[in-house]
Amino acid sequence: MRIENYPEIIPGKNPFKKIYLAIFLWITGRAIQAAARTDRVVKKEFEMLPDDFMLYLGVSPNGPGFVVGKDSNGKAKYMGAKLKGKSITLKMIIKNIEAAFLVFTFQESTAVGFAHDRFMVSGNLDEACRIGRVLDIVEIYLLPKIITKLAVKRYPNWKQMSPIRKHVGRVIIYTRAILGF
Amino acid sequence: MDTQKYYEFCTRVKTISGHNSLEEIPQALMDLNAKSPMIITDKGVSAVGLIQLVQDAIKKSKNKIEIKVIFDDVPADSDITTVNEIAKLYKEKGCDSIITVGGGSPMDTAKGVNILVSEDADDLMQFTGAGAIKRRLNPLIAIPTTSGTGSEMTLVAVIADHSKNKKMAFTSYFLLPDVAILDSRMTLTLPDFLTAPTAMDALTHACEAYTCLAKNPLSDSAALFAIELIRDNLLNVIKKPKDANGRLALANASALAGIAFSNSMVGMVHTIGHAIGGVCHVPHGVAMSILLPYGLEYNLHKTGHLTGELLLPLAGSEKFAAIPKELRPLKSIEIIRQLNEDLHKATGGRHSRFLSEVRNREGTQMIPKDKIRDIALTAQNDGSIFYNPEELDLEDLIMVIEAAWEGVPIDRKKIKMSKETSKVKIKI
Ligand SMILES: [Fe+2]
Predict the structure, then answer these.
(1) What distance, in Å, lies between the first and last C-alpha atoms of chain B?
(2) What is the pLDDT of residues B356-414, one digit of tens each?
(3) Global pTM exceeds 0.95
(4) What is the rounded average pLDDT for all residues in chain A?
(5) Helix (H) and strand (E) counts in chain A
(6) CATH number, domain at B158?
(7) Selected residue of B213, B218, B263 to mutate for chain A interface (largest A Cβ count, 10 A)
(8) What are the Cα distances from residue A33, in Å, to A40, A179, B26?
(9) CA B243/CA B239 separation, integer angstroms
(10) Helix H segments across A108-162?
(11) How many separate domains does chain A show?
């Protein structure tokens, strides 16, 4: 028996989950950029972030993930899927593919994911809080209520987010996220 | 009882508790292969002779331990410049370990110093965030002088950078002290108006660890015992300050609560409390005493059943059994409010019951009403908000802080409730 004739078995490898996560995170990353240019609350949160702000949200050890930062005009910008060569100020990493799959298929809400030690956060905590709120709003735009309800602690009532703001915003953010402007 | 689907728990602090446990310091240092410790403390601690006690305890036995230097100038709002200064001193004097004596500020500072000197680095900021500290640090012995923060048992250090107006959190299992020494002599002289709020801080750690999202069975058991010890000893100690057994019990309660919240985190009581500390410089324990009942009240529809379970350690088994299940959550909250009331009386009015009542030494009000919005804005960006069972937006925070300012219960109609998860229906 020659060992090199056998394929290397990488533990925990699951192409379906990885592809799902790659697509989900791609959309989310681009939707953050879009939401920051569309929704006034997200816009405000981004204004409060420091100029050199750059977020990496991804799965350990090798992704998928995305980078969102501020461009030279201080606007939110999706900067690709790769961590390399970027000076990240806030890193939010989910410990493994299985945990990421639980959180991003909403079998576990983001808050519960945090409580279950799924995330490793490095950087400034108040930036993490802002991004937590941004992600909640982005999920409300991207996903139907029945799913988002599983992701966020409390789905906003119509007083907090009017149906018009939600539905119009959803169309614009989707368009912008896919076309990337 | 539900078990978390997944959790992590770690406590590996060797704990030495007793009326003469300081005498064990030399042996503890030798076990860690250290013989040249530095002492890090603050002026308040050294002024009342507690450092002398530590020095005497070390000199008493025949050993090769030599205290190289004592730094007793950690300010109440310690920051990165203090950490750098102490780290420099540590290296100059050739120290090999740290003994930190005090409340939260000296302990957090000492943890920061230990990162710098162990990693031989100049910039603390490169070690923020999970996983940034990769190896065992130099020996650190923690000796608390208040029974509240539980820092001797926690893996976290919060260090401010005043120049950037930032607070950085460092978390790592390597930040757990090697040894915690609980000695009743260290808290014996703590005045009642400090004993009360610091113990209420410990009670808050236990209650929040038990009711917030990262609860787990190992933390829970520590939390329940902490509450019981506080129930049996706090008021007694306030009335009889020289009660060494009671003092030691409170020190144990604080350590247990520290174990609980180091592994389960805390929720909105700390979210708001940190903000009140930041905006109005109110001592942490004071804010905790006042806000604890409000946090439990706000989350009732989510975790009322857990708050109900807290009645057992809060009230004892007989009272617990006599009260029907659906009334227990509110009863727990009532008992905590009553405890604040009793402490207020026992301290001659120096223990505050609501936010508008908090005054500094000059007698001026520390939390003016017009600061409520600033407090709420700051609270929104405190990491503990993640672990609170119910969401809190700006409006919610203002509503809770206003109620705590006035000293009236929360109007439950104003709570924007997400799906009810409490297993007991709350009767209002
Ligand atoms: Fe605390």
Answers:
(1) 25
(2) 999 998 989 999 999 999 999 999 988 888 889 899 999 999 999 999 999 999 998 89
(3) no
(4) 80
(5) 7, 5
(6) 3.40.50.1970
(7) B213
(8) 13, 11, 58
(9) 9
(10) 110-115, 125-142, 145-151
(11) 1
By C-alpha distance, the chain A residue nearest B214 is: A115
Spatial distance between the Cα atoms of A43 and A52, rounded to a whole number of angstroms:
16
Peptide bond preceding B283: is omega within 30 degrees of 0, i.e. cis?
no
Mean pLDDT score, B162-167:
76
What's the CA-to-centroid distance between B425 and ligand 1, angstroms?
A: 29
Q: Is the pLDDT of residue A8 over 60?
A: no
Q: Are residues B225 and B145 in the same domain?
A: no
Q: Interface pTM (ipTM) of the complex?
A: 0.78
Q: With beta carbons less than 8 A apart as the criterion, state whether A58 and A66 touch.
A: yes
Q: Kindly compute the dihedral angle of the four CA atoms of residues B237, B240, B243, B247, in this order, to the nearest 10 degrees.
A: 20
Residue A6 lies in a domain: no
pLDDT in tens, B17-42: 999 999 999 999 999 999 999 999 99
A115 touches chain B (CB under 8 A): yes
State the Cα–Cα distance between residues B114 and B322, nearest whole angstrom: 51
Domain encompassing residue B254: 192-414
For residue A44, is it within any domain?
Answer: yes
β pairing state of B156-161 and B179-183: unpaired
What burial letters (b/e) apply to B202-222, b meaning 16+ CB within 10 Å?
Answer: bbbbbbbbbbbbbbbebbbeb
A14 touches chain B (CB under 8 A): no
- A122 forms beta bridges with A91
